[in-house]
Amino acid sequence: MILYLHGFDATSSGNHEKMRQLQFIDPDVRLVSYSTLHPKHDMQQLLKEVAKQMKHSDDPAPLMVGVGLGAYWAERIGFLTGLKSVLINPNLHPELTMQDCIDRPEEYVDIANKCVTEFRLKNQHQAMCILSMHDEVTDNTLSANELSPYYLIEWDTVQPHKFPQLAAHLPKISQFKTA
């Protein structure tokens, strides 16, 4: 089972396409949706939904995949639920990058402050990151610097921020899922 977390643009047709591509790894790909606008509520919603999905699966190696803001959540929810996660062009600091998009971006700071100290160290090797060299939204060199001590980093030389084509990375995602 693969749990897919969309980015800030929840209604993008690219989400369906990425889910379809992920079915080459596992036919059971499930969208885990959230509002994107209310971080505290989103965290509660995501934890409940992931727990519900886990009850209805017997997959010995479930995986979370998130893009952009969805990758922010995939890392945290994956850690809290013990699931491996794939972070595609993660929005690591939405409290800064979402200032003009949501009402209370400071809620992300509150979430970070309540998170387990050094959670990435405790989550080491439980996530892999796929970063676009040509991301028009995020400076992924900063993301790589922040995440590389803890997770495997894969660079993509073609895809933009929304990462419409996962094909080149499907074998590595599949291997990571089952390792």
Automatic annotation (TrEMBL):
<dbReference type="Pfam" id="PF05728">
    <property type="entry name" value="UPF0227"/>
</dbReference>
<dbReference type="InterPro" id="IPR022987">
    <property type="entry name" value="UPF0227"/>
</dbReference>
<protein>
    <recommendedName>
        <fullName>UPF0227 protein C9I43_06385</fullName>
    </recommendedName>
</protein>
<dbReference type="InterPro" id="IPR008886">
    <property type="entry name" value="UPF0227/Esterase_YqiA"/>
</dbReference>
<comment type="similarity">
    <text>Belongs to the UPF0227 family.</text>
</comment>
<dbReference type="InterPro" id="IPR029058">
    <property type="entry name" value="AB_hydrolase_fold"/>
</dbReference>
